[in-house]
Amino acid sequence: MPGGPRDKALNRTLVKICGVRDRATAERAVEAGAHFVGVVLVPSSPRFLPPDAASELALDIVAAGAMPVAVLRHPFDDATRRALDAFPVLQFHGAEEPGDIAGLARGGGSWEIWKGLHFAPSSIDLWLASRVVTRLVVDGPVAGSGVAFDHAAFGALPEETRRRSLLAGGLDPSNVGEAIRTARPAGVDVSSGVERERGVKDHDLIRRFIEAVRAADG
Question: Which domains does the chain have, with CATH numbers?
Answer without folding.
Answer: 14-217 (3.20.20.70)
